[in-house]
Amino acid sequence: MDGARAAVLPKSGVGFDPPPKGTDLIEWYYAKGVSDGFPVAPPTPEKVEATVAALGGNADFLECGVPPRFGGLTREVLAVNMVMAGCLPEYAPVVRAAMLALCDTAFNLNGVQATTHMASPLLVVNGPIRTAIGMNAGCNVFGSGNRANATIGRAVRLILLNVGGGWPGDLDKSTLGHPGKYTYCIAENEEESPLAPYHVACGFKPETSTVFTIAAEPPHSVTNHVANDPEGILDSICSAMSTIAHNNAVSSGHCAVVLGPEHARTIAAAGWKRSDVCSYLWMNAGNLFRKLAFEHRYGKVFNRNLPLWYRRDPDSRIPIVPSPDNIHLFVAGGTAGRFSAFIPGWGHMSAPVIRAIDGAELAEGAVCLDDSCRV
Amino acid sequence: MTERRNHEIVYDPRGVVSVEATPIAPRVSKIAGLRLGVLDNTKWNANKLLRRSMQRLDQEQGFASVTYYRKESFSKVASPELIREIAANNDIVLTAIGD
Amino acid sequence: MHDGINLEKLGLPTAVVVTEAFLHEAEVQRAALGMEGLKPVVITHPLSSLTDAEIDSRVGEAVSQATAVWRGA
Description:
The complex is a heterotrimer of chains A (375), B (99) and C (73).
Chain A: H1 3-7, H2 25-31, H3 45-54, E1 62-66, E2 71-74, H4 75-85, H5 92-102, H6 109-114, E3 120-126, H7 129-132, H8 147-162, E4 185-187, H9 198-202, E5 210-216, E6 220-223, H10 230-241, H11 247-251, E7 255-259, H12 261-269, H13 274-284, E8 287-288, H14 289-292, E9 317-318, E10 327-331, E11 339-343, E12 353-356, E13 372-374
Parallel strand pairs in A: 3-4, 7-10
Antiparallel strand pairs in A: 1-2, 3-5, 5-12, 6-11, 7-11, 8-9, 12-13
Helix pairs in contact in A: 3-4, 4-8, 5-8, 10-13
Chain B: E1 35-40, H1 46-61, E2 65-70, H2 80-89, E3 92-98
Parallel strand pairs in B: 1-2, 1-3
Chain C: H1 2-9, E1 14-19, H2 23-32, E2 40-43, H3 52-71
Parallel strand pairs in C: 1-2
């Protein structure tokens, strides 16, 4: 545990005493303990005001409180963290929607910030805003090189640190962490996807932009250069899912699957839709209960974190998640390469949340509350 | 933002924590004869710790009743309905575990 | 601590058990929620993965502190 960090948990952000002209502000902000480890861009009045304007003005408007510290995320504080992350003002609606989704009680951000597990929020953006702000949905989608992906994800993490107080060793108890705690933000590749976009499948209009949030482990790559049918490709993904090692195996909940476009095309060419894919994965992935119970050699295991209705006979097949609806399916990545990814979640303690950006309306038939859908 | 001549303009990214202080409930002078509520947050071994603590306390003190409740999820706040039910039917509460 | 605070607000003295590794988090939570007077019961870490005998030792730690919390000792 970082002793210096533990002693300095401000009760309120009362502002910093400004340093003399000519101070190296990058080093100064490092010394103030507000960095994620990378240099922060020192905010200027012009950049902060432009970002607040992109949020609708009214710098003192309180968007939400961020657990576990419950610091007040005003538009100005949101803008300051965005500028520090390197965001452009036009990214602001995405960052705000992400924070409002994360602070929805269903997400349980308090738990996600504090857990010893490595889960970190993964953001997936849908709709026209992706192209409007230049997000990457294609080649190297989970990697670096794109300002929007990198800095939107980073702004959210800086807010979770600075406003939420989720500092490692202090209120963030994650044993290992993972690189997504620097930034973990992608866009779905709607242009190259043969399937309906994720947000449309949720009930949003295609022209609505949304951000989806799930507490997630890192992606686990799934290689398949052999199969030319849906079952073969999905069997490889099932293999990645069917391990006792990730958190869904022992804590249930939700997970995500990202199909690379080549895999998605093969699957769609056979007439399969989203629900076919998720149902197949749900039906064919799983662990034997005896494996989850370690053959009861440490004592009889029941595991109350798994649904009561699972049979707990030694050779019962335990699903990875309780329903195909708990597998959140996206198409993203480059058009060359037969790869997909399985992304485990944290468990039943958190539900993913999808939120329209700037209060856009849902299409008819969707069932959601105040712009947020608990999927 | 704080601004002074001959100084750099800097910003505090942390946001203000404004809290209304709430006092704890009045304490009890004795334990014996009270109604004990036990709230299990279902984390590993919380149930064993709580059940054995319940038994030991009941042997030592003698409660009017001992009622065991389970949260639906260990990392979520207990539902308002559960909290109200516990408050309506008990005098003191033991809960675990933050680990 | 959230549950303990909610119960205390409804008038019930509540002994909240945390392991020592999570004491700091408990203190920050109660400060963030405005109830600095709520004393947790602190037991040795960890609680998961213990033998029955080790659990009994934690029970001893918990029981004496819980009584003190309820009585304000």
